[in-house]
């Protein structure tokens, strides 16, 4: 439930209506021919011992191009080198060094490197703290991102602790927007753990905020509150709310509902059922590692003015086994977005990267690294969007 609710909290970037690409056109998100250019710039920068800001910019560009091309390990190596060279510059360039850690954390997630995923997220916070006040908004938002990482890894208690600290710090320093973001995410997790009353109390003040700048946070609180109603046996409230929502011009579409992602298969060696959201216990000597290396796909789709999803297409993939892609497409098809206020427009085109992966673990009694039996699908929105152009409170 929290996966797409939490995404509602982020500011909605402006996104122009796009014409549907012709069948032979390459979608703009697919970076073709840029890896060589980025590599040349990166190597030239290192050869001349370029200044830290140039080094970090060239490294990020090269790592991004490698990631888009599916070369995850190569991208990971570039970012490892860049953080090693530049972490000492965090006091002078906290935001840029933090960006290296953030990118490294996201790539680690797609590789199933759970410990590195979280460790790099913490590095992002440390880099910001080296050059910014402890309660600067960037620091608190980075802490909220750490909590999201911990949630993704199933460490809900740790995520709650981090969110509580960020929420209290934002309240003390008068950062209302950051406080609201932390409150909504915290309420979702507290409710998930059975704290219904505490979750409602966290949302109550947000529902009364009437400033235009707080409109998106208030909306997130309303939707989450309605979802609490549904979880508690009152399903009509969320459906009534969804019927009133509209995506304003210049906003990215708001995702409101989708079915859980379910991928099942049976291992021919032992018949162990493995799937998203399940806990599969396997004896060490019968450890069945899921086949997840180099399995990714870029999927494009249209969000129509009525909030439905149409024309879902696998734009490209890693040419590995594709049996996991059909359930992803089915989940995208189940999505419901807020209706567009521009009912006569064609809608918005989106592209998302999906990676089938599994966290790394060790077999009991050994130090051998193996993939854990449960697998997961990491998602990254790759739609290029311009910066917001104005107030979108509607």
Query: What is the ordering of alpha helices and beta strands?
Result: HHHHHHHHHHHHEEEEEEHEEEEEE
- How would you write the strand order of the largest sheet? 6-5-9-12
Q: SS-based structural class?
A: alpha+beta
CATH topology label of the largest domain: Serine Threonine Protein Phosphatase 5, Tetratricopeptide repeat
Please provide the count of β strands: 12
Helicity range of the residues?
Answer: 40-55%
Total of domains: 2
Distance between the termini: 26 Å
What proportion strand? 5-15%
Main sheet makeup: 4 strands, antiparallel
Determine and state the CATH class of the largest domain: Mainly Alpha
Average pLDDT rating: 82
| CATH architecture classification name of the largest domain | Alpha Horseshoe
Low-confidence stretches are: 1-32, 266-287, 386-394
Based on CA atoms alone, the radius of gyration comes out at: 22 Å
Protein name: Tetratricopeptide repeat protein
Report what the structure shows:
It is globular and about 60 Å long. The strands form five sheets. It has a four-stranded antiparallel β-sheet with strand order 6-5-9-12, sandwiched between helices. Strands 1-8 form a two-stranded parallel ribbon. With 394 residues, the protein is of the alpha+beta class. It has helices spanning 2-7, 34-47, 52-68, 72-86, 94-111, 114-131, 137-152, 156-172, 176-192, 196-208, 215-231, 236-244, 325-333; strands at residues 246-247, 255-257, 264-266, 273-275, 296-303, 309-317, 336-337, 339-340, 348-357, 360-362, 369-371, 376-381. It folds into two domains: 2-251, Alpha Horseshoe (Serine Threonine Protein Phosphatase 5, Tetratricopeptide repeat), CATH 1.25.40.10; 264-381, no CATH class. The protein is built from 13 helices and twelve strands. Helix 9 (176-192) runs antiparallel to helix 10. Residues 1-32, 266-287 and 386-394 have low confidence and may be disordered. Strand 10 and strand 11 (369-371) form a beta hairpin. The longest helix is centred in the N-terminal third of the chain and has 18 residues, at 94-111.
